[in-house]
What does this fold into?
Amino acid sequence: MKRKAGSFLFLISLILLLTGCWDKKEVEERSYVVAIGLDLPSGLDIEKEQAIDVTFQFSNPKLNVKGVSPSGGEEMKDVVSLTAPDLVSARNMANSFVTREISFTHNKVLIVSEELAKTEIFYRLLTTAFKDREIRRETSIIVTEGMASKFIEKNKPEMMIRPHRYYQFLIDRATETGLVPESTINRFFAITDGDADLFLAMYGSYNKQKDGFQDEDQYIAGQVPKKGGNPVQLIGSAVFKEGKMIGKLSGEETRITRLLDNTSNIRDLFSSFQDPLDKEYKIAVRIKKTRKNKVEVKLRNGPPEINVTYPLDMKILSVPSMVNYAEDIENQKKLKLALEEKLKENAEKLIKKTQKEFKTEPFYWSLYVRPLFSTVKEYETWDWNNKRYPYADIHVTMDLEITGFGKQFRESDIEKVID
Amino acid sequence: MEFFSIIAITVGLKSTDMSTVLLFKSGLNAAWMIAIGSFILIIPSLLLVNSVLKKYQCKTILEVTQLTLGKPIAFVVAFIMLCLILINTATDSRSYITQLITINFPNTPLFILYLCFLALCMWGAKKGWETVGTIAWTTFPYLIIALSFLFFLLFKEAVFNRIFPLFGTGLWEIAKGSFNFIPLFSEPFTLAVMYPFVKGHQTYTRGLYSSLIFTVFLMVLLYLSYLWIFDYRSIGKITFPYNEAIRFVTIGRSITNIETFFITIWLVGVFVKFTVYIYLISRIFGFLFRIEEFEHTIIPITLLVFVIGLIPENNETNIFLVRTTTTAYVKYFILCFPPLLWAAAKVKEARAG
It folds into this structure.
């Protein structure tokens, strides 16, 4: 009897458990979004009505099957755009023509048009969209010149057919080289809610082919002169203050910002400088940051004093002027001095710019102001970003070390070669 | 050892649920100090209870109360204890289930998931205290491994200076917060009901203190990691910091979305926690109404928890209203009852001697 009752209970529980998979969804039944684009709707007044243009790019599950070659020539219809009240409801609206359940769990990027980023509604949309359980904090924000939907459409990754990998690699590589900042949503919220610093987002563009050659990191997105390849570029950064975009920085400025910011690390930074002994040529160097910046803030009556020590390691990679730097200590000294001078000048120029133009800093230096206060209230009334930083005296001290000269320490003797 | 892990799980898991939100609300970036402060505040009470328990070997805290303060008071105390722990268990379990639903199972009805969850806890509790202890002890290492792994991964994302300004809302506010959050450590007192089940007084004391210190350390570390990755203003808006934190971490750059690993182990911990609670309730209930075979009351009590848990309309009212009002009383209970008990025991001893 007891056994019978037991097995009966067991069967009942089986019914409960096996029918209970409300949330079971096969991978087949889902469409994974790899990029979301947000635009201001055209022809609608957002002052009067809340609306937004949402673009989804889906990953194509067909291509992920091993051994199946992607059917060539077939146009991929995996980008859709629609106008919706907000991001979360756009997901269901899209289901009027997308058959599968739309999932954000593997979304890597949020692409926002500059136009939208400059309005106040952007912050509202983002914070509320964040209630959705599938939007993840490590999603990166990209601001594009022009429409976000165009950016996604024009994006034709070469060498990589799977779009989710593409975005991941694009972002990883671009942040490694320091030309764009790290801009996860988590960082966006930490900085914007902390209300003391500027948040930098990656700045992207599809090519509009402007002419003119500059140093390798002077460009902003869309201006890198090139031929062929993917029309989409990521370089430079969009500057956000209090949740709103207020300006942009070039690739070079972004690099300096990231070097001055202890919370971001750059792996692989190649740059070029004018050769101090032969002004016609440029020296290519590889910059590494192995030591942390020292930021000392001194509170005084009036504007605070900030002393920044900015250590860099540098490897000289190419010296087209053929000046012998490796063996000649005198030359090396001159080179070091000149480089330090140049780096310092660049950094100071950028700091001046942020003080004047943005009225606060993108270097996350508020972190070094915080230990000076014992309570949040004191710190917040002291008001680092608006009242103090723009008037602060900032001194930059360079600490440059030339750590090597590449795997060929001397250039060949040019006169002998030509002769 | 089992006792050690039971305390560590029941108390430690609080740093992964919604009480974290309340903690950060009152302490901002000094929330971790509040956890330490509360712990320091309960130490005297703990010591007193312990000394009384030592005197009356092999008696539960309730039986001791009965001996020293008389039957009516013991009844009242047990009744208060029962009410508090019952409400606490109900709101807490509801909160955990909501957490699970919001993040992982958006389509599953609360009713069913809650029922399944409590049924499993009930089944565990039904097996008896020894089994509960064994389960706690076996799952404990896995929890610790998962947590250390999580810390390790979170450290990569951490910005350590976010801990400043050091005192958050100010020293006085922290002191007040510590006082308000004393109920974080209510378990050591309710678990004193299980005193006779532990091998001896020394095992009990050693287990209790080492476990509490260890747990406080873990909680502080977890609070600090939340702070380090989210910053104090952002964290105030996050409903479930633990879930956000485990979703945030990645192993390298290709292994992302690894939260399932942490969720599973966390869930096992939650099961153990509520199994312990349900068992405790039935134990106190048994004492209150003189039921020798109190383990038979586990099923109706689970149902009661289930029904109470379903009452609040949403989790936010549950936490912000019900929890804050009940905990307001718990702290007085924790602070006042042990000295009373101790004094009564002393008086009795003096009279007898």
User: Anything to note?
Assistant: The interface with chain B takes residues 16-17, 20, 22-23, 105-106, 127, 133, 136-138, 168, 172, 186, 189-191, 193-195, 263, 364, 367-368, 370-371, 373-379 of chain A (CB under 8 Å). The mean pLDDT of chain A is 77. The CA atoms of residues 62 and 347 of chain A lie 49 Å apart. The longest strand of chain A covers residues 305-318.
